[in-house]
Amino acid sequence: MTPVLEVRDLRVRFDTPDGEVEAVRGIDFDLAPGESLGVVGESGSGKTQAFMAILGLLAENGSATGVARYRGEDLMAMSPSELNRHRGHDIAMIFQDPMTALNPYLSIEKQMVEVVMHHQGLGHAEARAHAIEMLRAVRIPDPEQRIDQYPHEFSGGMRQRITIAMGLLCEPDILVADEPTTALDVTVQAQIARLVGDIARRSHMSSVLITHDLGAVAGVCDRVMVMYAGQVVETGSVGDIFSAPRHPYTQGLLASMPRLDRIDDVLPAIPGNPPNLSDIPAGCAFRARCSRAFEACGEPPPLHPLGGDRASRCHLEDAP
Ligand code: SF4
Predict the structure, then answer these.
(1) Strand, coil or helix: what is 22?
(2) 118: how many CB neighbours lie within 10 A of its CB?
(3) Which keywords label this protein (predicted)?
């Protein structure tokens, strides 16, 4: 099946007062039509910056190279106005904090209806009906009345659901949700992650869920891409990653996940912190935190293909 998005050798750099920081260090992946991909990693792993670069949303001190083909057209080579045509319409991104996506001074109606009128060329009444339908899809109660309210009149969970509805307004091919649940309590987090997955599946949309929480992708995504220090360190189906993780970092993430059958256990956290991206040590970037490091780890490991869509960036795959 031809991928809806093909990313090759994507690199993102930032000029900072401490020098150049390479936040994304050559990542490759495909997103199939209708597929749901979980992108997992600690903060600073490059997961958000990779998608900001693809959508032309990097901060002013950032720059990116590589290829990101959406239905064959390279988004990275487009002018800002061409990219603007695809953003929101073909590829929509939902951000961490709903208050940054919603204008506090405009009613939800004003914010949603104008987007539909602009992107889909509908009249006001049709656009309002479509917006109400989207609010209903994300389970906002009484959407016919509540659409006229302002963001501060909704709870945090509802505001996040409204931003999802806004992301879905133009029926994009790809929905990118960046930690859509960080600001919410655990129960609402699980509901929102499931909601994004359900809507994407029902609408045959491809989706990307960016999260630091490996648990959030279970039951929601088809495939997982684990990132560390700007690189992909493991990929595989959700089933494979959860039942047989190959990379020591993925194994550490999985071991530190709360589980219902181990409610009293003290969860082992991965020791240490991710490396400073302006000064990444030679060899494997995970070496200082890895309990299985050995002599070969002084050299950077390649991403070893493991058959099917599995791969792991670890020298243990070479070890006898
Ligand atoms: Fe650990 Fe070495 Fe594998 Fe890196 S390459 S994850 S240090 S075993």
Answers:
(1) strand
(2) 13
(3) ATP-binding, Cell membrane, Membrane, Nucleotide-binding, Transport
Class of domain 5-90+172-318: alpha beta
Query: Which residue has the least CA distance to atom 3 on ligand 1?
Result: 314
Taking each continuous run of H as one helix and of E as one strand, the counts in the chain are 10, 12
CA–CA dist 56, 251 (Å, integer): 33
Q: What is the ipTM of this complex?
A: 0.99
Closest CA to 163 of 92, 269, 105, 224: 92
Give pLDDT, residue 107.
95
Q: Are strands 231-237 and 311-312 parallel, antiparallel or unpaired?
A: antiparallel
Ordered by start, the domain boundaries in the chain are: 5-90+172-318, 96-171
Instruction: Name the β-bridge partners of 64.
Output: 12
Q: Contact at 8 Å (CB) between 250 and 226?
A: yes
Quick: pLDDT tens for 254-286.
988 766 565 556 667 788 888 888 888 899 999
Give the distance (Å) from ligand 1 centre to CA of residue 91: 35
46 close to 21: Cβ distance less than 8 angstroms: no
Query: Tens digits of per-residue pLDDT, 80-92?
Result: 889 988 887 899 8
Compute the distance from residue 13 Cα to the ligand 1 centre, in Å: 25
What whole-number percentage of the chain has pLDDT above 90? 54
What is the distance between the alpha carbons of residues 57 and 71, in angstroms, rounded to a whole number? 20
The residues facing 19 across adjacent strands are 16
> Which residue is closest in CA terms to ligand 1's atom 7?
287
Residues 6+ apart with CB under 8 A from 304: 311, 312, 313, 314, 317, 318
Report which of 147, 176, 160, 150 is spatially closest to residue 98, judged by C-alpha positions.
160
